[in-house]
Amino acid sequence: MLADALQTLLQRLDNAAHAAGRPAPRLLAVSKRQAATAVAELHAAGQRAFGENYVQEAIAKQDALAGVDIEWHLIGHLQSNKAREAAERFDWVQTVDRARLVPALGRHRPPERGPLNVLIQVNIDDEASKHGCAPEDVDTLVAAIVAEPALRLRGLMAIPAPFEDAARRRDAFRRMRLLFEQLRARHPNADTLSMGMSEDLEPAVAEGATLVRVGTALFGARPSKETT
Ligand SMILES: *Cc1c(COP(=O)(O)O)cnc(C)c1O
């Protein structure tokens, strides 16, 4: 059943990319509040990258799925006191949004795991309720990240405001693309623009998302309580 949902979603991504004349983005399956068995089922259907919001919940699933070749992304807000576990247990941290986190992530990255891939989270619609740095703070974070050999700067991530108005939503994705292009002009190895979720992946892909983060459209509605 999850295999069918995966095929449907991959087709939807292909269609969106084709309509926009862009390459299809990578798919990150967002497994927050989903059981480890559901992750295993989707992995068996061919999905390799999974995103989690909470460090403790992710670690429980990682332990349950030890030995399975999964690429784990942290997409939830990272508290400073969790930086060590994040650096040890994830392949990517998409939510680096303040310079203070950066040395802690670098220091705690186990050398045998290779560099930790990081994205800078941008609060593109300047929402009080959202984490992420201001667009004008990206450069400061970039400088901090590239100074850490244990970290690899891969790009930017955003969660735009859920405006009803499609044009306003699309404008946020467009502003993220412009920031990403500015970043790439100086750091050509930054190859990832993470934006777009179940409800809005088409406009995100149209504006150049290279990775979309999808939960509901793959797994169905999330259980309201943690099921791990
Ligand atoms: C939950 C979540 C998603 C997935 O949202 P869906 O609407 O279920 O696709 C994507 N990104 C982040 C940061 C999330 O917290």
Number of domains: 1
By CATH reckoning, the class would read: Alpha Beta
Summarize the main sheet. 8 strands, parallel
Strand arrangement, major sheet: 7-6-5-4-3-2-1-8
What's the total number of strands? 8
SSE pattern, N- to C-terminal? HEHEHEHEHEHEHEHEH
Features of this protein?
228 residues; alpha/beta; TIM Barrel; eight-stranded parallel sheet; 8 strands; binds pyridoxal-5'-phosphate
Describe what you observe in this structure.
With 228 residues, this protein is α/β, with parallel strands linked by helices. It has one domain (2-219): Alanine racemase (TIM Barrel), CATH 3.20.20. 41% of the residues lie in helices and 18% in strands. The chain has helices at 2-20, 36-44, 55-64, 83-89, 101-108, 138-146, 166-186, 201-206, 216-219; strands at 26-30, 49-52, 71-74, 92-96, 116-122, 151-158, 192-194, 211-214. An eight-stranded parallel sheet has the order 7-6-5-4-3-2-1-8. Helix 4 crosses helix 5 (101-108). The longest helix has 21 residues, at 166-186. The radius of gyration is 17 Å and the shape is globular. The two termini are 20 Å apart. The model has no long low-confidence stretch (mean pLDDT 96).
